[in-house]
Design goal:
single chain, alpha+beta, Triger factor/SurA peptide-binding fold, Chitinase A, domain 3, 4 domains, four-stranded antiparallel beta sheet, 21 helices, 21 strands, globular
Length: 631
C-alpha cells in the first residue's frame, strides 16, 4: 500500500483527495462543522442559497482552475472565465436538480452509493478500494461516513435526473445519413485565384493622397498606451540551497506516480477482418466463417505473406491498405475478445479465428514488448530533481507573496525591497503587446500588469523560472503618431487597399464572363489567366491547396450542376477565389454504414446537450429563480 498516511500528511495525493472531496460536497453544504453565513444570495423555489455556501463553492472552483491551468492560472483568467458567476450558477443548478429528483421520485439505492464509493478514484490503491484510505480522507475533510454517503446519494440522484432528461433525445437514420453526406460529399472545382499582391505595382499614390489617407485613418496610427513598472524577482534557483529531499520523499513520489515508471506489455500485430454484425443470422455466420477459414488456410502455408493477404482479403478499410498493420498496442486498447486472443500469441504466431462484435479476425503477432518497470534507483536522480524543483517553486511563491503583502501594506515596492534587501528592476516603456525582458518568456504574466492602476502593486505573478511582484510606476497615454513617423506605413496601407479593390474588380469580371460563357477556363484565358483543377475534397477533408476558411467551404458546397458558380468571388483570406463546380459525388452507402455508430453518437451528444440546456432553462422559469444580491 502506498505510504500516504504519515502523521504530517504532506503527500500531494492526500491534498488532491481532500480537494476532490470538497468539490463534490461543497455544493451540498458538506462542511457541516462550519456555521453557515446568514445572508441570502439567491432563491430557488422556496430554498435560499446563502453567501456562506456561495463562498465555499467559489473557493473550490478557483482551486479547481488553479490545478487545471497550472502555470497559466492568473486573476485575469478568473475574470475571463467569469468564475464568480459560474459558482452561483452551479449552486442554482444543483438546487434545481434536487428539486426535480424529489418530484420525479428519483433516488439512489444503498447499493448504488456503495458501488460508487468502492470505485471512487481517491479511495483506490492500485485499482483496489482501501478502507483505511476512505476513513483517513473523510477524517481530513471532517466528514463522517454517514454524512458522506448521504451527500453521495444526493449526487447520484441528480445524475439520474440528467440521464432521465437526456434519454428523451433521439437520432433518426435520416439525420445520420444527412450528417454523413454533409461531411463526406466530395466536389471538384475549376478555379482561378486572384491575388491582390499582384496589383500593387499598378498603384502609385501621390504625396497628397498619402497625406489624405493618413488624415482619414489616424486611429490606425496611434502609438498604444505604454507603461513602466518596478519589479522584484524571486527565482527558483535562489531557494535550491534551502531544500533537502529525504529518501521517504523519493519513495512516496515513486509510489504515487506508479504509472509514470511502469509500462504495460505491448504487442505489434496485423489482422485480417471478415466483417459480420453481432446479430447476424446463422446462415450469414456460416458463410463468413467459411470465407475466413479459406484465408486461414492460406496464411498458414509455408512462406505465406500475411501482409499481402491482408491487403487482398481484409475488410478493415483503415488497415487493409497497410497490410492489416495495427501498430503497437496494449491489451486495454482493443475489444476484450481480440486482446485476449492476441496477447496469448508469441512473436510470429497466427491465431485461430477470433469472433468479435466486428466479425471474424485472423491475428498475427510480429513483436512483443514485455511489461517493464523502471527501478527506484534508476529513477532516483530524476525524482530528486523534480521534488527540489517543486519545493523551490513553493518557497519562491511564498517569498513572493509575503513580499507582495509587505509592499501592499507600505504601498511602496521600493521601500519594501529595501527592508528585505532585495534588488528592484525598472522596465523600459512597454505596451501590452510588447515582451517584458525582465519576465522572460512569460506572456501570461504580462496581462495582469496591464490591469493595475497607477502605483498599484501586483500579487505574485508566475514567470518562466520563478515569480515576480511589480508596481505600476507611470502610464503614457496613447497618442496619434506624427505623419512623418508613419509616412511609409501609410503609403503601404494605401497601396494594399487600392490593390485589393483592383483584385476585386478583376475577380468580378472573370466571374461574370464565366457565367456568361458557362466556362471558367475560357473566361480566365480571355483575361490572360489560367484556370486550375482542384482535387476532389470534402468538408471533412478540405483541399490543402485552396485552404478555404469555414465560410468559404459553405459557399462552394452549396454549388450545384444547375448553379455551378458562386454569387460573388470568395475571400480566402489571402486571395479571391473564382470557381466553377465540375463534379459532386456522394459517398457509398457501404462506407456510410461503417461510420453510422460514430455519427449517431456525435449527433446524440449534441442533441442531448441542447435538450439538457433547454430543460434547465425551463426549470429556472418554473423555479422563479431570484438573485437577491449582486456578486
Amino acid at each position: 500500500m502506498l505510504n500516504l498516511f504519515r502523521k504530517h500528511a504532506t503527500s500531494w495525493l492526500i491534498k488532491v483527495a481532500l480537494i476532490l472531496i470538497a468539490i463534490v460536497f461543497v455544493f451540498w453544504g458538506g462542511y457541516s462543522y462550519q456555521s453557515r453565513e446568514a445572508s441570502r444570495l439567491a432563491k430557488v423555489y422556496d430554498q435560499y442559497i446563502t453567501y456562506g455556501e456561495y463562498q465555499k463553492a467559489y473557493e473550490q472552483l478557483v482551486d479547481t482552475y488553479r490545478r487545471q491551468f497550472g502555470k497559466m492560472f492568473s486573476d485575469d483568467l478568473l475574470k475571463q472565465l467569469n468564475v464568480k458567476e459560474q459558482a452561483l450558477e452551479i449552486l442554482i443548478e444543483r438546487h434545481l436538480l434536487l428539486h426535480a429528483a424529489e418530484k420525479l421520485g428519483l433516488t439512489a439505492t444503498d447499493e448504488e452509493v456503495q458501488q460508487t464509493i468502492l470505485h471512487y478514484p481517491v479511495f483506490l490503491s492500485n485499482g483496489r478500494f482501501e478502507p483505511e484510505r476512505y476513513r483517513q480522507v473523510l477524517r481530513q475533510a471532517r466528514l463522517t461516513p454517514e454524512v458522506f454517503e448521504g451527500q453521495m446519494a444526493s449526487e447520484l440522484a441528480s445524475h439520474k435526473v440528467e440521464s432521465f432528461v437526456k434519454r428523451q433525445a433521439v437520432v433518426t437514420d435520416d439525420e445520420v445519413q444527412a450528417s454523413y453526406l454533409y461531411d463526406h460529399t466530395q466536389i471538384q472545382l475549376s478555379y482561378v485565384m486572384i491575388d491582390p499582391n499582384q496589383f500593387e505595382a499598378q498603384v502609385q499614390p501621390q504625396a497628397d493622397e498619402i497625406q489624405a489617407y493618413y488624415q482619414e485613418h489616424q486611429n490606425n496610427y496611434r502609438d498604444p498606451e505604454k507603461r513602466q513598472f518596478a519589479m522584484v524577482l524571486f527565482k527558483h534557483e535562489q531557494f535550491l540551497k534551502q531544500i533537502s529531499v529525504t529518501d521517504g520523499d523519493i519513495q512516496s513520489y515513486y509510489e504515487d506516480n506508479y504509472k509514470k515508471y511502469h509500462k504495460e506489455s505491448q504487442i505489434k500485430a496485423r489482422h485480417i477482418l471478415f466483417k459480420l454484425s453481432a446479430d447476424a443470422s446463422p446462415e450469414e455466420e456460416a458463410k463468413v466463417r467459411a470465407q475466413a477459414m479459406e484465408v486461414q488456410a492460406m496464411v498458414r502455408k509455408p512462406g505465406a505473406n500475411f501482409a499481402e493477404l491482408a491487403k487482398k482479403y481484409s475488410q478493415d478499410v483503415g488497415t487493409a491498405p497497410k497490410g492489416g498493420d495495427l501498430g503497437w498496442f496494449s491489451s486495454g486498447h482493443m475489444v476484450p475478445e481480440f486482446s485476449e486472443a492476441a496477447f496469448k500469441l508469441k512473436a510470429g504466431e497466427i491465431s485461430d479465428l477470433v469472433r468479435t462484435p466486428f466479425g471474424y479476425h485472423l491475428i498475427k503477432v510480429e513483436e512483443v514488448r514485455p511489461e517493464q518497470t523502471v527501478p527506484l534507483e534508476e529513477a532516483r536522480a530524476e525524482i530528486e530533481q523534480t521534488l527540489k524543483r517543486d519545493k523551490a517553486r513553493d518557497l519562491a511563491f511564498k517569498a513572493a507573496q509575503d513580499f507582495a503583502d509587505l509592499a501592499y501594506a507600505d504601498k511602496d515596492l521600493q521601500k519594501a525591497a529595501q527592508t528585505r534587501k532585495l534588488d528592484v528592476l525598472t522596465t523600459a516603456w512597454v505596451s501590452s503587446k510588447d515582451p517584458i525582458t525582465e519576465l522572460g518568456a512569460a506572456p501570461k504574466a504580462t496581462q495582469p500588469l496591464f490591469n493595475l492602476m497607477k502605483n498599484e502593486i501586483s500579487n505574485a505573478l508566475e514567470i518562466q523560472d520563478g515569480f515576480a511582484v511589480a508596481q505600476l510606476l507611470e502610464i503614457r497615454e496613447p497618442a496619434v503618431q506624427a505623419f512623418d513617423q508613419v509616412k511609409e506605413q501609410v503609403r503601404k496601407d494605401l497601396i494594399r487597399e487600392r490593390a485589393g479593390k483592383l483584385a476585386e474588380q478583376s475577380a468580378n469580371e472573370v466571374l461574370q464572363a464565366a457565367k456568361t460563357r458557362k466556362d471558367l477556363p475560357a473566361a480566365a484565358q480571355e483575361q490572360h489567366l489560367q484556370a486550375k483543377k482542384s482535387g476532389e475534397f470534402s468538408r471533412s477533408k478540405p483541399d490543402t491547396v485552396l485552404q478555404l476558411p469555414p465560410e468559404g467551404l459553405d459557399k462552394v458546397f452549396v454549388l450545384t450542376e444547375s448553379q455551378p458558380f458562386p454569387a460573388a468571388p470568395i475571400d480566402t483570406g489571402n486571395a479571391l477565389l473564382v470557381c466553377q463546380l465540375l463534379s459532386s459525388s456522394a459517398p457509398s452507402a457501404e462506407i456510410m454504414t461503417e461510420e453510422n455508430d460514430t455519427i449517431r453518437k456525435r449527433l446524440l451528444q449534441q442533441k442531448q446537450a441542447v435538450l439538457w440546456q433547454a430543460w434547465l432553462d425551463e426549470q429556472r422559469k418554473r423555479a422563479d429563480v431570484k438573485r437577491l444580491h449582486e456578486l
